[in-house]
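Design job #97: recover the sequence.
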């Protein structure tokens, strides 16, 4: 049985990416990825592991050559927020850390509040608060 899932992402500059993800609230995980070409973060209450690897190191163990620039559309990572204020705070931190907002914070369908951002390497992320008491059942 699978015990956990780790998300592995290639990055161009591990130092800048470590700084970026730390600034937006991810917790540096010193149990794994303590190397010059990698970093590990724990995300959320369930402690999801996100591993960042310098591009050439990632290519070596993934068995693939990556393009210089990712399109960012291969996958969308979504983060759960506790409330709309947390969405706003993360969006502010993303901009201050050098990321780009592609979807400004706001409500959708009256029960979801979220935003979208792009990290330093072009990966797309969303931050979403869902008011489940207002969520339609059908």
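Job complete. Output follows.
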């Amino acid at each position: 049985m699978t015990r956990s899932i780790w998300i592995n992402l290639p990055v161009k500059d591990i130092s800048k990416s470590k700084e970026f993800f730390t600034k937006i609230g991810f917790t540096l995980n010193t149990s794994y990825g303590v190397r010059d070409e990698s970093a590990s973060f724990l995300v959320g209450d369930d402690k999801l592991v996100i591993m960042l690897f310098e591009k050439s190191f990632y290519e070596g163990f993934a068995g693939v050559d990556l393009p210089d620039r990712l399109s960012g559309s291969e996958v969308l990572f979504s983060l759960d927020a506790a409330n709309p204020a947390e969405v706003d705070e993360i969006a502010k931190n993303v901009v201050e850390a050098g990321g780009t907002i592609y979807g400004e914070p706001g409500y959708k369908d009256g029960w979801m509040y979220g935003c979208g951002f792009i990290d330093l390497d072009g990966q797309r992320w969303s931050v979403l608060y869902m008011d489940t008491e207002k969520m339609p059942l059908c």
